Amino acid sequence: MDYFLTEDQLMIKELMRQIAEEKVIPARHELDEKEEFPWEIMKVLAQSDLFGLFIPEEYGGLGKGCLDLCIAVEELSRACLGVSTSYAANALGTYPILLYGSDEQKKKYLPDIAAGKRLVAFALTEANAGSDAGGIQTTARLEGNEYVVNGTKQWITNGGEAEIYTIIAITDREKGARGASAFIVEKGTPHFSFGKKEKKMGIRASATSELIFDNCRIPKDNIIGREGMGFIVAMKTLDNSRTGVGAQGVGVAQGAFEEAVKFARQRVQFGHPIISFQAVQHMLADMAIDIEAARALVYSVARYIDSGAKEISKESAIAKVFATDLAMRVTTNAVQVMGGSGYMREYPVEKMMRDAKILQIYEGTNQIQRNVIGQALIKEAAKGK
Fold first, then answer.
1. Which of 39, 73, 38, 68 has the alpha carbon at shortest distance from 55?
2. Which CATH class is domain 231-380?
3. Chain centroid, CA 359 distance in Å
4. Which of 125, 161, 251, 371 matches a 20 to 30 Å C-alpha distance to 360?
């Protein structure tokens, strides 16, 4: 399919494909086995200006949009979802500053982020606050010119590796979700530490850690927006980032599909390559249909976001659900096409299947996404749309 990408977008796609082929694919097995953060690859991405894709030119970025970022994330995910998660989570952590940060905050942080000098992480989830974001227990209490932060964040992508953290904490418990606020916390701040690095089923190259705040004092100016805006900051951030998760789904599905086709052409049974058998052809055909449909949807939603649309919650949720559900289906079927070989670590589809599962869970489970879509449909029906 020709998606009528611009010359710049085609260059982004080609550049990320080259990095994926030359740097990521040769390293992905070892990174997965050793559960090692891909710092060397992050440096290559930084040198290629790919961290600044979505950051405005005035802050040292390339001034591109959601579609450009999705194209880059898809290509990286085709090679390794663990590496692409480390890259994409940087954008997730940056969006609160980009969307709601003050001019001073943008000038202070965005140039280094765009240059890939400082990695970013977003911290919303806690032990009792995942899908239920209103269950946040971490607090931030204003004392003079500082906020005192207490609490623990759980399962934070890029945790321990990132230099900058955008976090959500409660500043007024009595107001419920409207009492949450967003803050910037820098690594190295006294009484801000990291707990255990999690051992995961998949995306093992990505770091997932606890953040611990024990009377951690941060400047009053580190609040993003104003008090009580935390929930809005978090939801708008996720609205903008979920299309990128959809792009991850398209990418890992494409990678698994290509491996399955290559194997089916080479594997001979009953005197013929298994790709000649109708049962296998139908599985591959369904995979191709799913991937093309998901790519079309993700690109369409990304373009919709880039158009300046204000209400994007339903659309980004649809893109996330469809593309990530199919990623699980396609990677599972790729293993099936490859049979016993597909189940072995020697072949990459085993890893792709393990990796794909997280896409249905992080940045809002696909069940929560269906809630978002359903609530949007109710509102639209009430307005007579």
1. 68
2. mainly alpha
3. 8
4. 161
**What are residue 201's phi and psi, to 5 degrees?**
-65, -45
CATH 1.10.540.10 fits 7-114, yes or no: yes
Q: Taking the complete model, does pTM exceed 0.70, yes or no?
A: yes
Looking from the CA of 285 toward its CB, the CA atoms found within 13 Å total 8
The torsion angles phi and psi of 184, rounded to 5 degrees, stand at -105, 125
Is residue 363 flagged as an active site residue?
yes
Q: Are 55 and 90 in contact (CB under 8 A)?
A: no
Those residues whose C-beta lies under 8 Å from the C-beta of residue 376, and which sit 6 or more positions away, are: 313, 314, 317
The single residue of 161, 259, 350, 363 carrying the catalytic annotation is: 363
Which CATH topology does 120-228 take?
Butyryl-CoA Dehydrogenase, subunit A; domain 2 (2.40.110)
Q: By C-alpha distance, which of 245, 246, 225 is closest to 168?
A: 225
> 327 is written with which tokens?
């990623």
